[in-house]
Amino acid sequence: MLMGIAILLLTYWVERQLLLYLILAGTAFALLTFNYKQFTFLHKSYSNSLGTLFYPAGVLSSYLLLYNQPIYFFQASLMVLTISDTVANFAGQWKQGNKRFMVFCERKSLYGVLAFSISTLIIFFVFLPHTLLGDWGFIILTLLLAINFEVISVRGSDNFSITFGLGLFFLLNETNSLNMPYLVFLLLFMGAGAFLLYHWKMLSRLGSLTAYLLGVFLLAVMGLEWMLPVLAFFITSLIFTKLNRSLNKTKTTDSQRNAWQVMANILWAVGSAFLYLITGSELYVLLFISFVAAVTADTWASEIGPVFNKKSFSLKDGRLHKAGTTGAISLAGTLAALSGAVFIVVFAYYLFFGAISWPMIIVISLSAFLATFVDSFLGAFWEVNLLKRNYFKAPQAAERITPNDLVNLLGSLSAALFLLGLLQLWLGVRPGRLT
Questions:
Q1: Rg of the Cα trace of the chain?
Q2: Which of 128, 179, 319, 356 pairs with 119 at a CA distance of 20 to 30 A?
Q3: What pLDDT score was predicted for residue 308?
Q4: Count of CB atoms within 10 A of residue 215's CB?
Q5: CA dihedral for 376, 377, 382, 388, sign (positive or negative)
Q6: Does residue 118 have a pLDDT over 80?
């Protein structure tokens, strides 16, 4: 808290460039002293906390984002971390009538969240100009975002997420025309959806939170055309998974998808969306479509194949095994993979471009379809070996990455390699020429 107030005073006393150097020096000091026992009193607030590393990183990133913007934006984001986060900490320790709940990996309290919200609102009215305070949509959205950045915390990461998140939002608000009522509705809608997915045991707590964050990014930052293909993948996968388990009477004790499983399916697609946001290149739209199509094809093959074929052909030993065996393929699964790839590609391509180009549809669909064979190959020869390693043989935590997650990540990534090769070899289009 004292450090935050000191930085606030410096924003009035020194020039921006000098303040940047001071923040850089503080960040370097935190990194260099973190592991030294002599500085334990500075860094260790509780067990396994990385808060004193997240803190300078958050302040520095916020200052860089807002370097060319009015200084009151940086001051407001800094004071939310300095004052509101501290007040929430004290209020959270009040015991009588204070209900606690788990968010992400840490417990939060009702009084803590209320104290954070009230103090944040006061800070906005103190530091932000009246032109912004007159827009209640802006105030409500900013407050909701601040609460999100605070409660979604692990090992002190809110020291980064609060300042960085608010800094990014203030920057986007200054450089873009944001639809505040839509974004408020979006946050509430996505939050309710994530809670229901956890409540219905479709996703774990971390899995639902990861889906929420990715969904907000795709809808709020990228747009509806980026979200709908992912939603189509998720809904169809859920339907076919339920169908497979129902018809084959498969019993499972772990029906929830965790954060790693969510990321294994959507990480590369989100990365492509982010790169498109930075570059504006059409290539990243095509890569996005191919990634979503690849994970859809793989899931359809895994869930539909065992419904129609009781045996599958192993790529490892060339023998027939029970349907659903890792690294094995079947005719029904192969046809399902092709259907899933074409379905997503046609749907997504039309959303983005408003027309159908069959040569491009064929190329993207083929790249996604071929990626499913890479996934099967890795499952047959690599996943089995990973399972023998001590790291994966040890008792697994609920949110720990698995060999299957790694296989899915690498398998879907191969779709990009196939797409880049097919664009040049088949269509004669060099990726660098796409704009």
A1: 24
A2: 179
A3: 86
A4: 21
A5: positive
A6: yes
Give the pLDDT band (50/70/90) at residue 8: very high
Contact indicator for 372, 297 with CB cutoff of 8 Å: yes
C-alpha count within 13 angstroms, C-beta hemisphere, residue 154: 5
At residue 309 the predicted structure's pLDDT band, cuts being 50, 70 and 90, is confident
Taking CA atoms, 300 is separated from 36, 77, 305, in Å, by: 52, 45, 8
**Rounded distance, CA 135 to CA 428, Å?**
51
Tokens coding 55: 């803190």
Closest CA to 148 of 185, 188, 105: 188
Contacts of 310 (CB under 8 A, 6+ apart): 322, 323
pLDDT, position 39: 63
Query: Which among 317, 368, 374, 314 is positioned nearest to 339, based on CA atoms?
Result: 368
Chain centroid to Cα 306, Å, comes to 31
Task: Give the whole-angstrom CA distance, residue 216 versus residue 231.
Answer: 13
Helix (H) or strand (E) holding 312: strand 311-314
19-23, 241-245, 333-337: least confident range: 241-245
State the pTM of this model.
0.78
Rounded Cα–Cα distance for residues 259 and 241 (Å): 18
The amino acid at residue 430 is: R
pLDDT band at 393 (very low <50, low <70, confident <90, very high): low
Residue partners of 363: CB distance under 8 A and separation at least 6: 419, 422, 423, 426, 427
CA dist., res. 434 & res. 371, Å (int): 23
Q: Is the dihedral of CA 56, 62, 64, 68 positive or negative?
A: negative
CB atoms near residue 27 (< 10 Å): 18
Question: Which residue is listed with tokens 């019993």?
Answer: 251
Tell how many helices (H) and how many strands (E) occur in the chain.
20, 5
Full DSSP string of 129-197 = -HHHHT-HHHHHHHHHHHHHHHHS-STTTHHHHHHHHHHHHHHHHHHS---HHHHHHHHHHHHHHHHHH
Weakest mean pLDDT among 141-150, 249-258, 395-404 = 249-258
Residue 212, Cβ neighbours under 10 Å: how many? 22
Name the strand (E) or helix (H) holding 33: helix 16-33
Report residue 427 as tokens. Answer: 């269509």
| Nearest residue to 368 (alpha-carbon basis) of 260, 273, 233, 278 | 233
CA distance 191 to 185: 10
pLDDT at 250: 65
107: nearest Cα among 121, 79, 88 = 88
Rounded CA separation 417/371 (Å): 9
Q: Are 82 and 1 in contact (CB under 8 A)?
A: yes
CA distance 297 to 107: 38
DSSP one-letter code for 96: T
